[in-house]
Amino acid sequence: MRDMKHILYLSILFVLTNMLWSCGDGVSMSESRQRLLQGYNSAEYTIRNEGNYPKALGLYLAFIRGAENDSTMEDLLMMAYVSVAVIYGSFDDVENAIVYNRRAYSLAKKLGDTRISELALTNLAQSYMMKRGYDSASRMADSLLTLNQSESRTLMFHYSIIKGEVALRLDRYDEALAHIRKADSVVGSGDFSRYECSAPPGLMARYYEKINMPDSQLVYLDRVWELVEADNDPQPKAECARWLMNYHTKHGNLAEARKYQVEYLKLTDSLVNLQQFLSVGANHQQSQIALKGEEINILNREASHHKVIIAVVASLLSLAIVFIVVIVYQKKRLDAAYRALFEKDRRLMSMLDEQQACEPACDSANGISHTTDAGGCDTMEEGRNRDLYDRIVKLMETTRDYLNPDFGLGNLVSMAGSNVAYVSKAVKQYSGLNVPSFINEYRIREACRRILDEANFGNITFAAIGESVGFSSQVSFNRAFKKVTGLTPSLYQKMVSDKRRKN
């Protein structure tokens, strides 16, 4: 699963739920406190039984607004802060996750609550890990050991998981393996949730992937799937299904890959896309209804019936004009996007043709491919860079390893058999792009092909297409897609479809 973040997040929510019920047992509360607790319970129910994170976030934030004005609610407020941070982190909003985790940690220190301190520090570590702040994440883990809970199994579990993932990301394999085994032994000796139990085998799968032992990797992937499959929460199931889909695709097990692809798309659509759409759509509809109601009231007070009719007609005419302008503008953007993509492909083919034409002229009888004479095609350095770039382009076109979300400069250097400086310079010199942008162009070109392939990808969401070509979030996919094509994925699909119908 993606860096084990959802496992840790969900395990934190599981702990918070148990703490909430325990703190509410046998306590006499005021009516306002009961209402606030009811709101908190509704948020927890929404996550556990509906898996609707946007709805739960709204409930938690409403609770926080009430609880921050009630000094008697500080115990529940700490848990609300952590829960909100968990949801933000689950949707890759790292900055907000850090803000609410710090609030939770500050309040927990004030109240002397080591359990919430542990959860907040764990979540902060995960947030820093998402930002590639591995030193900060490691410091958060070290801070766990200062909470005077040396006998706490959950504390040692979170400490070992964080340290293990940090070491794994930094390719310190022996250190990573020691921490992962420690976490697994802790889980085996206590009462932990399925989410927590799946974390050690998930990291073991990552470990065996890193050291290129695919058979062992699959053993641990299957173990993770067994742990999450029986649970009602689609979030960890979707993450594990995506991981298994990518594994079987990479190793040519197409039937298995297809099985997990179907499972992943089903889970993803139900978990994120539909719920987010409904949530955002409902909020937008409510705000629009309120706005229209207010507009009508103003018109009734300030204008006659005749003026209202004139205003409506004028508004419709204005909307019609705006609509026409938008259509024309969008057509121009699509044409520009087509031209941009064509130019990029043409430039690439031109480079390859130029190379083929240049090489015979530059080759000497003794096998030297490039000369340093004033009349030669390239200097030796330029020839080296050009050969390296051509090799990189060929690798990108044939291996398609760039579809892996973890693919980056290091992978490109290894594939090309060169070093960081040479690869970076060659890519920049002949493509005009830095390495991340160069890789993203290949990913977006593949995404365009999949968007246009309605037979195979017509029922797949843009978020799923983005993940299938190597993007970790829909936000990063949309940003890269617009940078390359000048259009959003949805607008690209719509305008291509319109163009097809006209032709």
Polypeptide structure, described:
The protein has 503 residues and is an all-alpha fold. The protein folds into 3 domains: 272 residues, Alpha Horseshoe (Serine Threonine Protein Phosphatase 5, Tetratricopeptide repeat), CATH 1.25.40.10; 52 residues; 172 residues, Arc Repressor Mutant, subunit A. It contains 22 helices and no strands. Helix 1 runs antiparallel to helix 6, helix 4 runs antiparallel to helix 5 and helix 6 runs parallel beside helix 8. The chain is globular and about 70 Å long.
Question: Which features characterize this protein?
Answer:
single chain; 503 residues; mainly alpha; Serine Threonine Protein Phosphatase 5, Tetratricopeptide repeat; Arc Repressor Mutant, subunit A; 3 domains; 22 helices; 0% strand; globular
